[in-house]
Amino acid sequence: MTKYEIMFIVKASMEEAEIKKTAEDLKKLLTNKQSKVIDFNEMGRRKLAYPIDKELSGFYYVIKVETNHETIAEFDRKVSINENVLRHLIIKIESE
């Protein structure tokens, strides 16, 4: 199992309950595949550096997870087609 850090930005123009549901659904994508979520941080609403799809701010989330490549590939595919997610970034954490 490899460690990854995933950051994603959810649209701030939605209702708060829908924002939290989107974040929890993305977290469940990982936990349903026998992945170990090490840390899940809600960084809150932040102003974007530049407008993305006419959105000026978004809710930032960071997940540290231990999983395999296939699960990360599936997560990347599903988050790419999710209209509520403005951007996402997946970083492989090198072992020390």
What does this structure look like?
This protein has 96 residues and is of the alpha+beta class. The chain has a 4-stranded antiparallel sheet, with helices on one face. Strand 2 and strand 3 form a beta hairpin.
Salient structural properties:
globular; four-stranded antiparallel β-sheet; alpha+beta; 30% helix; single chain; Alpha-Beta Plaits; 96 residues
Gist of the model:
The chain is α+β, with helices and mostly antiparallel strands.
> Poorly predicted ranges (pLDDT <50, ≥5 residues)?
none
What share of the residues does DSSP label as strand, in percent?
over 45%
Q: What is the structural class?
A: alpha+beta
Number of strands: 4
* CATH 4th-level superfamily: Ribosomal protein S6/Translation elongation factor EF1B
Write down the CATH class: Alpha Beta
Global mean pLDDT: 92
CATH architecture annotation name? 2-Layer Sandwich
CATH fold-level name: Alpha-Beta Plaits
**Euclidean distance between termini CA atoms:** 15 Å
Widest beta sheet: strand line-up: 2-3-1-4
Q: How many helices?
A: 2
Number of domains: 1
- Fraction of residues in helices? 25-40%
How is the biggest beta sheet arranged?
4 strands, antiparallel
**What is the string of helix and strand elements?**
EHEEHE
User: Which outline best applies?
Assistant: globular
Spatial extent as radius of gyration: 13 Å
Secondary structure elements and pairings:
Elements: E1 2-11, H1 16-31, E2 36-52, E3 55-67, H2 69-81, E4 85-93
